[in-house]
Amino acid sequence: MFRRRTTNPPATDDPRAWPALTEPAEYEGAIELEGATAQVWSRAEDRVALLHHEVSTAEWRQWRADLAGIEVLIYATGRIWTGEPELRWWHTDRFPDHQAPLVKWAEITSILGAAPPWFPQLLRTFATINRWTPGQGPVTALATDVDVAPILLAAATCEPGTAAHLALTHFAAEALWEDSQAALRDIAAFEDTDTSLDLPWGAVPLTVPKPDAIDETTIRAGWMDLLDRSDDAAAGALRTMRFWTSGDRTLPFAAFTRIDPRQNEWSRAWADRLEASTWTAAHVLFEEFKPVRFLTDPATGAACAQDAKGIIHTLVPAAIPSAAALESIALASGDASVWISDTDGRVWLAPELAADGIAWGYEGGGPWTLACLLDRLLDDLAARAAIGGEPRPGLLALCQHSWPDGTVLTRADLEAARNGRFVLPELPADNE
């Protein structure tokens, strides 16, 4: 039973100055808080709580209310500070940031009469911490950053051996393996910092085998099946996937953008071909925008959703599904800043990946990525967007140039730039 008092801890009684205990303080157990766990020890008339913050966000003011009557609160940040675990004395009504008094590892060991357990970041949950007891050694627990249950639930609805079943089960296995490795790296980071510390681990990650690789074509085909479904199991899997990864490797559509059909002629041409759609699992990716109309792009299969202001939120294809050749590009303002026209007269959003966006008109990563993309699209309009690469100097200069909104560059312009023969126009004096 926890002994709760009704008074707040005194702000002047610095625990770092307390006499050292010759015997370990009595461990009372763990208290579950919103987004954190407090371990509580008793020493004579004083009680000490060590707070372990989980990965999830939480309302820290409620922690103080829930722990009212415990004399000393010490916050374990989970980070390394000056070569040892960072502990902060929470002695005011403010959250203990980097300016709060530091409690050294030797001091917390003196306060409690023994070194407290330390938990890797992904194992700082109440369920794990509550299993720990003094003298038993670390508990073994599954390290999880994202709940893969929705992924496995959706996998159970797929025929075994299909692309969807393979993609989902591989995603779950890979996520659990990555999380176990993250916990091991957390342990190694602390142990490599100072091997002289008496740092008893409260938990260690359950060993998870590394899954065998499967080809990206199967992965994308499997997730495409999920996008086209119209059930809550598929929707739940997509929500989880997007929370855990950018989707660059898993989806044929990885990046998002928003388009105002009234902005320019290319956005109007693109919006005119969209078709009304019933709700599909893919539309959960837009639920934060409170869509009033569900749409789809029949040319790419990309799901779209229109909000109450008329803005269309869409998935951006990682490749253009066209056998035609690139005819021209248009550089526009707004979120959709690069439009591509092909020799069949169709307009496309420039392919893009979430981890490496495209842009123009400045010196930075966006124009660099665009220059690499245009180099590939000149050879094959259906080429998939890629991360990295070395752009042709002429194409990079063209993409970095501050063009007027609505500038159209022809294939001949792009080929000349690729070959170093394109002459950039002079900038107006106020743009230099």
Task: Present the secondary structure layout.
Layout: E1 26-33, E2 36-43, E3 46-53, H1 60-66, E4 72-81, E5 84-89, H2 105-112, H3 126-129, E6 139-141, H4 149-156, H5 163-193, E7 203-205, H6 216-228, H7 232-244, E8 253-259, H8 265-272, E9 275-276, E10 293-296, E11 303-306, E12 312-317, E13 326-331, E14 338-342, E15 347-349, H9 365-379, H10 393-400, E16 407-410, H11 411-418
**Over all CA atoms, what is the radius of gyration?**
28 Å
Number of strands: 16
Strand arrangement across the biggest beta sheet: 1-2-3-4-5
Q: Kindly report how far apart the N and C termini lie.
A: 72 Å
- How many individual domains? 3
| Helical proportion, percent range | 25-40%
Strand content: 15-25%
Number of helices: 11
The description of the largest β-sheet is: 5 strands, mixed
